[in-house]
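Here comes my example:
=====
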Amino acid sequence: GLCFMRKIKRLTGLCIFFTLWIALISSGCTPNGGPATTVKDFDQLLTSLHQGGKYVFEDLPWLISKEEVMKQKQLNDSHSVREDVLKIEGTFPFNNSSLEQTVLFVFDDDKFVSGEYLFSTTNQDQFIKFCEELKTRLKKSLPEPFGNDLSVLNNTKNIGAQGKSVMWKGEDGSYLRINLFTTAQQGDKMRYTVQIKSESPAPERKGLQ
């Protein structure tokens, strides 16, 4: 009987897998949105930023054109906030609630040079917990930072407008920077933001003209 149950379980698993796969394919055909979504958890976030000792962004090759990024991520003109920036907005589920999330693709001379995730909230406790969780994940996944250390993610109670930052350097000269800052909003409310920015290796280091 056990073997039969296992088979059923495997079949159910396969069915679920195919249903998800079909859902993914069909959602890829929607005219706006498509694959270009915000990240949904820390694992996805870290995979999107760091692969094989290099800092990357959303599985995109550095220095491709804005048009190419739009094509690969299925973005349209509504995502183009400036000539050199594409922007996606959404939320990041966390701790039975969520933080606001913005994803930015930044171009210089029509070359994709950096990508950013911005996570923000007006709830200070939520922010502190998010930073603590982020610190734990980064410690496990990334090498030692190259500028400053992970303690900046510890006492996030008093960041101030100047902010705090920590930085990593990849084997290919790419960089990852994390900045924490606060901005005052209307009605004396503070907005707390974590900016995670991945940057392409500087062209001169790659011998590009």
